[in-house]
Design a protein that fits this description.
It contains 12 helices and 12 strands. Helices cover 42% and strands 17% of the residues. By secondary structure, the chain is of the alpha/beta class. The chain folds into 2 domains: 2-155, 3-Layer(aba) Sandwich (Rossmann fold), CATH 3.40.50.2000; 176-338, Rossmann fold (3-Layer(aba) Sandwich), CATH 3.40.50.2000. The chain has helices spanning 14-28, 40-43, 45-55, 81-92, 111-130, 190-203, 218-228, 244-252, 269-277, 306-318, 320-338, 340-350; strands spanning 2-5, 34-37, 63-68, 95-100, 133-136, 153-155, 176-180, 210-214, 235-240, 256-263, 281-285, 298-302. The chain has a 6-stranded parallel sheet, with helices on both faces. Strands 9-8-7-10-11-12 form a 6-stranded parallel sheet, sandwiched between helices. It is globular, with a radius of gyration of 21 Å.
Length: 353
């Protein structure tokens, strides 16, 4: 079995980390799982297709799982080249699966964003038709534009690229709210506005409140959050990009993850990282919020409803029994659905003829 990747994303590549972890889990199941990266950015697209034609010669009748994100196959996130890769693999006679790490197009309402989004959705739909198995990381009934007449669609949730470190349940005062990953303020200012509002309201009920932001976008968001929280008692700590071990340690000593980067779903690796650590979550529900998310340790409110978000955050931070229950539910959900051993077993079920 081979996982086929596009160009590596910098400074961090969640898909490559995902495949590395899945490879180890597959080996524990007695299955080989090799990673091959198509060097289209270094060689150019035409030469890389020739390279892939030679590389794939021994793959006939073997499973190849092409990993899809738009930016992995195009500098401008217009991934038409990905379809040429799939066509080549079909000509080679491989058993072709596609793992879609993205099932929605590019966000934003500018004309260029809309064009990019439409191209991405067209590529995803074409790739589904080319594949023997099309694997999405959101329950298919939660993505209304997916074709309903295809019997090759399968659902497998993502895992966490962060090593699970048990959340240290801490009753009492001095609470820490973690925010892991933020989108650019220019694209979606609602994220920072929602975080600021929730923390403003919570600081009126809770002394010694601390907001820790980490991951991609956290440094860029720092000045906006500083300005929004300047008249509150909230302590803001911005950590930026961290190693997986540092992320796990930060989540383990937090009291709750506040998730407003769109709705929580089974494809949101930052939310899954909190589940893996047993960290309670307060966040938005939306179209993609399907099973098993409602059964995890998450308190959901309608997307964009800031007053309900703030109320939920205050409730979790002030109710030790609720926070402990959410912690335990997340640990159980991780073992059953989001650990890489569970994911590897699901892959083997899906790829069994």
């Amino acid at each position: 079995m081979t996982a086929l990747l596009g160009t590596r994303q910098l400074p961090a590549d969640g898909v490559a980390d995902y495949c590395d972890a899945l490879s180890q889990a597959m080996k524990r199941q007695g299955e080989s799982f090799n990673l091959v990266q198509v060097p289209w950015q270094e060689m150019g697209k035409v030469r890389s297709l020739l390279w892939l034609w030679q590389k794939s010669q021994p793959w006939k009748n073997q499973w190849v799982i092409a990993q899809y994100t738009a930016s992995a196959w195009s500098k401008r996130a217009l991934p038409v080249f990905f379809l040429f890769v799939l066509l080549l693999l079909r000509l080679r006679g491989v058993r072709l699966a596609v793992m879609f790490h993205e099932v929605q197009g590019y966000p934003g309402e500018k004309l260029t964003y809309k064009i990019r989004r439409n191209v991405q959705l067209a590529v995803i739909q074409a790739a589904i038709r080319l594949a023997d198995r099309a694997i999405v990381n959101v329950s298919r009934d939660r993505v209304p534009w997916l074709p309903t007449d295809r019997d090759n669609l399968e659902f497998i949730p993502v895992g966490s690229n962060i090593p699970p470190q048990p959340h240290r349940f801490q009753p009492g005062e001095g609470k820490t709210v973690a925010v892991f990953g933020l989108t650019s303020y220019e694209i979606t200012p609602d994220e920072i506005n929602a975080i600021a509002y929730a923390l403003q309201q919570a600081s009126q009920k809770l002394p010694n409140l601390r907001l820790v932001t980490l991951g991609r976008g956290s440094k860029d968001a720092e000045p906006y959050l500083q300005q929004a929280l300047q008249n509150t008692s909230v302590e803001l700590v911005t950590l930026g990009l961290l190693s997986p071990e540092e992320i796990a340690a930060t989540l383990a000593i937090s009291d709750v993850l506040l998730y407003v980067r769109g709705e929580i779903s089974t494809r949101r690796t930052t939310a899954i990282a909190a589940i893996a650590c047993g960290l309670p979550i307060v966040g938005y529900s939306g179209v993609e919020t399907g099973s098993p998310i409602p059964d995890t340790g998450v308190v959901l409110v309608p997307e964009g409803d800031k007053p309900q978000l703030a109320d939920a955050l205050i409730r979790v931070l002030t109710d030790d029994a609720l926070r402990l229950e959410l912690h335990q539910r997340n640990l159980q959900a991780y073992e059953e659905h989001f650990s890489y051993d569970a994911i590897a077993k699901r892959f083997l079920q899906v790829l069994t003829p």
